[in-house]
């Protein structure tokens, strides 16, 4: 066999001609026999899932790396899908991809052993900045709907720049684009990206910035995981759109940016208004404006016709005014004479009414004198009646006067202390002092003896 020719015990002779395919096949067979199925650990890099379902990636450590393939029949049973930076262990067979002569591992199983160093650093920085509020949705700004200029921060040699410019030219050829060149990979690239972002803000000549690059491994995208770059994006006065890598790639810049696009092309579509849509909207607005202007012209024409019908020539208007003035003169003359005649007639009527209503002074004076005499007689008779009544009441008062009673021999006894009238003999006691009122005066007396008598014994 050909493989036996390349064994350690026998060397091929110089005249043997070996085809490349046979040589690669022999090497692959030797590798598979020499290195049995084993578990190999490393960090995932350059992971790709093909349309066929096969997985292609590399695993590496600090000193070396090796390519791996895991076919769909094995990959569909894997418990997880490896990501960039994951530290995994693969159960694989060392073999060679014969058509290209590349050494690779044919992976049969995969298991997680922990995340890689770079990915751990990525998670630590992400957690720190998120705790500071740099990724809060309330902080992020809306993109301008119609930017006057668009800025692109990327490498001049990047394929992503061509994709972005092609998309912007297709969608918005009327919008100028300014490129701020900076390396997107390698030593010092993060600092240069940060400097270009600050330069764009200082120049203030664009309305939105696109920070982009194509896909790659976590090492390739590491410049966009820089803390200083993330803070510069946050404090940028110009809205920033991040379009780094593919849809599955995430960087710190994606979280810090105002908008994250899945790809550089997607970022270009987000910042540029589509020219066809703008033209369509402009056509619609133009048509609406034309319709409104047409309706306005029709209304104004109708209003002009109405005003034209009301418009009269100056000569005709003067003739109408002259006729109207003549009519007013006639009406004024007739109104003046009619008012005078009416006033004269009213005066005659008032004179007649005044003559009828004029008072007769002699008759009224005679009536007044008669009423005066009647009033004097009535007053005299009333005085006589009042005088007679007073005399009658005086006589009656004299009859009832206490003085007349005293003159007939009666007396009034009053208690000297209380002044109360004594009405009953029972109140009289020997030694009691009394005041006696008589017809010609009064006297104070003291009772020496009291002999009560019955009332009917008087």
UniProtKB/TrEMBL annotation:
Q: Which reaction does it catalyse?
A: Exonucleolytic cleavage in either 5'- to 3'- or 3'- to 5'-direction to yield nucleoside 5'-phosphates
Note whether Iron occurs among the keywords: no
Domain named Exonuclease VII large subunit C-terminal is located at 134-445
DNA repair is among the record's keywords? no
Family affiliation = Belongs to the XseA family.
Xref: HAMAP family: Exonuc_7_L
Q: What is the designated name of this protein? A: Exodeoxyribonuclease 7 large subunit
Q: Which organism is it from?
A: Paraburkholderia acidiphila
What gene is behind this protein? xseA
């Amino acid at each position: 066999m050909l493989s036996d020719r390349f064994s350690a015990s026998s060397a091929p002779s110089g005249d043997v001609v070996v085809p490349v395919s046979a040589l690669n096949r022999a090497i692959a067979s030797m590798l598979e026999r020499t290195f049995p199925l084993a578990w190999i650990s490393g960090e995932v890099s350059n992971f790709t899932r093909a349309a066929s379902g096969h997985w292609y990636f590399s695993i590496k450590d600090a000193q070396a790396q090796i390519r791996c393939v895991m076919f769909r029949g094995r990959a569909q049973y894997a418990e997880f899908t490896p990501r960039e930076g994951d530290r995994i262990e693969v159960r694989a067979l060392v073999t060679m991809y014969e058509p290209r002569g590349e050494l690779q591992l044919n992976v049969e199983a995969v298991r997680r052993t922990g995340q890689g160093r770079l990915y751990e650093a990525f998670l630590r920085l992400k957690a720190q900045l998120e705790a500071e509020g740099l990724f809060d949705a309330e902080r992020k700004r809306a993109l301008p709907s119609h930017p006057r200029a668009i800025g692109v921060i990327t490498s001049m040699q990047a394929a992503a720049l061509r994709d972005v410019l092609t998309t912007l030219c297709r969608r918005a050829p009327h919008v100028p684009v300014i490129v701020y060149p900076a390396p997107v990979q390698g030593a010092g690239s993060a600092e240069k990206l940060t400097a270009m972002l600050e330069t764009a803000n200082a120049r203030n000549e664009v309305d939105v910035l696109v920070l982009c690059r194509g896909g790659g491994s976590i090492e390739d995208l590491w410049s966009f995981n820089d803390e200083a770059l993330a803070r510069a994006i946050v404090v940028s006065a110009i809205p920033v759109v991040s379009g780094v890598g593919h849809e599955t790639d995430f960087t710190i810049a994606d979280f810090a940016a105002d908008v994250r696009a899945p790809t550089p092309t997607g970022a270009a579509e987000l910042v540029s208004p589509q020219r066809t849509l703008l033209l369509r909207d402009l056509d619609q607005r133009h048509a609406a404006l034309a319709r409104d202007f047409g309706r306005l012209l029709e209304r104004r024409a109708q209003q002009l016709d109405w005003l034209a019908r009301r418009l009269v020539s100056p000569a005709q208007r003067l003739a109408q005014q002259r006729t109207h003035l003549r009519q007013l003169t006639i009406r004024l003359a007739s109104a003046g004479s009619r008012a005078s005649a009416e006033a004269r007639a009213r005066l005659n009527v008032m004179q007649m009414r005044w003559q009828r209503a004029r008072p007769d002074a002699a008759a009224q004076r005679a009536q007044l004198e008669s009423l005066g005499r009647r009033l004097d007689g009535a007053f005299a008779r009333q005085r006589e009646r009042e005088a007679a009544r007073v005399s009658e009441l005086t006589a009656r008062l004299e009859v009832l006067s206490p003085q007349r009673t005293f003159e007939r021999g009666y007396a009034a006894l009053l208690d000297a202390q209380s002044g109360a009238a004594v009405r009953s003999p029972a109140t009289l006691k020997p030694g009691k002092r009394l005041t006696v009122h008589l017809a010609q005066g009064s006297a104070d007396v003291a009772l020496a003896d009291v002999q009560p008598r019955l009332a009917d014994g008087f």
